[in-house]
Amino acid sequence: MNLHKAFLSKSYKEQRGTTLLELMLVVLLLGVLLSVTVPISFRFYNTQRQTEVVHTVQNTVRMAQLKAQYDIHDSAVGVKLLPSQIVLFQGNSYALRTASLDEVIQFDPPLSLSGDDEVVFARISGIPIAAVALSFAQQSSTSTVVVSALGLVDKQN
Q1: Beta sheet of 153-156, edge-to-edge order
Q2: pTM value?
Q3: Which domains does the chain have, with CATH numbers?
Q4: Residue 132 CB neighbours (<10 A)
Q5: What is the mean pLDDT of residues 147-151?
Q6: How confident is the model at residue 6 (pLDDT cuts 50, 70, 90)?
């Protein structure tokens, strides 16, 4: 029994701390773990931002359609995509809008636009004046919000 106690106490006395090899292994494992998780986290973050932008565009287009159907300001209602903002406007076009009634949503970072950038809905019916595909990209991910001739709003990849 005393021999067992002596052996245990001797082995504990010899181990005074961690070795350099153990420390290097821990640092190596942390480096590998970070090199795997950081890119995945950034990719997830960018995907979520793009999804948020798509939903914002879809909801703004639907809001414009509802405002046109309710005929709130006795005019057509539209949405204009600009690189750093989306504008919900009253009028037959963005150029002929009533600027004091604009509702603006800011984007950061800015969007890269391609194709159509404006959709206008007719009063009362809420049908778009023309079918459009609002295409935009943000940080290498491209999305398209399509408004059909019947006024259906949908996302395309």
Answers
A1: 112-115, 132-138, 141-147, 153-156
A2: 0.78
A3: 20-156 (3.55.40.10)
A4: 21
A5: 94
A6: low
